[in-house]
Write a structure and sequence with these properties.
With about 150 residues, the protein is mainly α. Helix content is about 70%, strand content about 0%. Helix 2 packs antiparallel against helix 3, helix 3 packs across helix 4 and helix 4 crosses helix 5.
C-alpha cells in the first residue's frame, strides 16, 4: 500500500492506519534528526512530536508531494524550536549567574565597608559600588603628570 492510500484511509476515519506511516518512516526520520540535536533522547522526542504534528495536520499534506520530505520539514521546525528553547534558557541562566556574582561582590564590598575600609566607603557614598572600573593602562600612567611637578618642568 502506498502513502496516498494510507493517508486516504486515515482521513476517512481509520486512525490506526497512521501507524503504518510511522513504521515506514520512523527510522529514516530519526536518522535525519539525530544529526541535528545533541542527545539521542531529544532526537526521539522530536521524531515523536513530528509524527503527532503530521497526524494533526494530515489534511494539509498535498498528496502529489513526498511524504518523507513533508515529515522532514516538520521535524526541522521542531529542531529549531528546541534550539530556540535551549538558547533562551542558557541566556537566562547566564543572566542569573551574573546577577548572583554581582550580589556576592556587593556583599563582599559591604563586608569590607563594615571593617572600616575608607576606599569602599568612598565608593559606597559615590554610588560606584558594583560598577567595575578598568585599571589605567601602563601608557596612561607613564604619560600622566607626576605629583608635585608640572608639565613645563619636565
Amino acid at each position: 500500500m502506498d502513502d496516498s492510500e494510507i493517508i486516504a484511509r486515515v482521513l476517512a476515519g481509520q486512525q490506526d492506519a497512521f501507524g503504518a506511516l510511522v513504521e515506514r518512516y520512523q527510522r529514516q526520520l530519526y536518522y535525519f534528526v539525530v544529526g541535528k540535536v545533541a542527545e539521542d533522547t531529544e532526537a526521539k522526542d522530536i521524531v515523536q512530536k513530528s509524527f503527532v504534528s503530521a497526524y494533526q495536520n494530515l489534511r494539509s499534506f498535498q498528496t502529489d508531494g513526498s511524504l518523507f520530505a513533508w515529515l522532514k520539514g516538520i521535524a526541522l521546525k521542531h529542531c529549531r524550536n528546541e534550539w530556540r528553547r535551549y538558547h533562551s534558557q542558557s541566556t537566562l541562566r547566564e543572566r542569573l549567574l551574573e546577577a548572583r556574582r554581582a550580589e556576592l561582590e556587593l556583599a563582599w564590598l559591604e563586608e569590607r565597608h563594615h571593617e572600616g575600609d575608607r576606599r569602599v566607603s568612598a565608593l559606597h557614598v559615590s554610588g560606584l559600588v558594583g560598577i567595575r572600573v578598568a585599571a589605567p593602562s601602563h601608557r596612561a600612567l607613564a604619560s600622566a603628570p607626576r605629583p608635585g611637578k608640572s608639565r613645563a618642568a619636565r
